[in-house]
Amino acid sequence: MKTRPVARRAASGFTLVELLVVISIIVVLAAMSFGAANMAMTKAKKLQTSNDARALKQAIQAFNSEYSRLPDFGAQGDEAQTDGEAGAELLTILLGKEEVSDSMQNKKQIAFGNFKINKTKAKGGLVYSNGGSGARPDGLYDAWGKPFYLKLDTEYDGELEDPFKQGNIVRDTIIVYSYGADGKVGGGDDIQTW
Fold first, then answer.
1. Which of 50, 65, 162, 181 has the fewest beta carbons under 10 Å from its own?
2. Which among 120, 68, 113, 65 has a CA at the least distance from the CA of 93?
3. Statement: the pTM of the whole predicted model exceeds 0.85
4. CA nearest 44: which of 142, 132, 170?
5. Cα separation, 52 vs 42, whole angstroms
6. Is 94:63 a contact under the CB 8 Å cutoff?
7. In the chain, what is the straight-line distance between the N-terminal and C-terminal CA atoms, in Å?
8. What is the pLDDT of residue 38?
9. For the chain, how big is the Rg over CA atoms in Å?
10. C-alpha dihedral over 77, 147, 74, 117, to 10 degrees?
11. Which residues touch 89 (CB under 8 Å, ≥6 apart)?
12. What residue ranges are annotated as transmembrane (predicted)?
C-alpha cells in the first residue's frame, strides 16, 4: 500500500513583517487624519474670527446709523483695540450696557452687537469681567485670544489707511482686522473686513 506524505498545516497567525506593515499603515492613516483635523480647526478659527470682525463692524455701523455719529469711547486717534479700557467702553456702548445717565451715548440701550460669549479670551469671542460674572465686557477677542484692531473714519471722509499695505487707502468708514494666529502682518492668516 502506498502512503502519501502527510501535508503539514501552515502555522496560523501573522508574521512579524505582516504586523509591522499593518502598524505602519495605521500610523500613516492616523497622521493623515490628524493633519486634516488640524486644517479643519484652523479653518473654523478663521471663520469664527471673520464672523466676529464683521459683526463688530456691523454693530458700529448700526450705531452710526441710529445716532448719526460714531461712538466716542476714548480711543487715541482713529485706531483702537477691542480690549483695555477703550475697547471695554466701546463694547459697553455697543451692547447697550452703559450706566443710565445723561451722558449715555446709546440712550436707547440698543444691543447693536451679538457675539459669542466665552469665559476666557483664549477661546475668542466676547469676554466679561470676572470670568463672565461681571456686567461690563473686558474685551472681544479673535479665535487665537488676541484683541481685534479697528480703524474709524473720524474725519467722515470715507477714507482710511490700509494697515496691511503701506500707502493704500481703503474706501470705508470702519475697518476691523486681526493679524491671525501668528499675530503678524502677512502669513496668509490675517482677517480683514474690507
1. 65
2. 113
3. no
4. 142
5. 15
6. yes
7. 96
8. 83
9. 28
10. 150
11. 73, 74
12. 20-41
Q: What is the pLDDT of residues 72-124, one digit of tens each?
A: 998 888 899 999 999 999 999 999 999 899 989 999 999 998 899 998 889 89
DSSP 83: S
Q: How far apart are CA 174 and CA 136, in angstroms?
A: 23
Q: Helix, strand, coil: what percent of the chain each, to 5?
A: 35, 15, 50
The three grid cell numbers given for residue 171, joined into one nine-digit string: 474706501
CA distance 80 to 124: 18
Size of the chain in residues: 194
Residue owning grid cell 456686567: 135
Cell of 81: 483695540
Give me the helix-helix angle, 16-67 and 84-94, nearest 10°: 70
For residues 31 and 22, give the distance between their C-alpha atoms in angstroms, rounded to a whole number: 14
Question: For 121-134, what is each residue's pLDDT tens digit?
Answer: 898 999 998 755 56
**Largest pairwise CA distance in the chain:** 119
Query: Which residues lie across from 150 on neighbouring strands?
Result: 80, 176
CA-based nearest residue to 96, from 134, 42, 147, 59: 59
Phi, then psi, of 43 in degrees rounded to 5: -65, -40
String of DSSP letters for 144-180? TS-B-EEEE-TT-SS-EE-SSSTT-EE-SSEEEEE-T
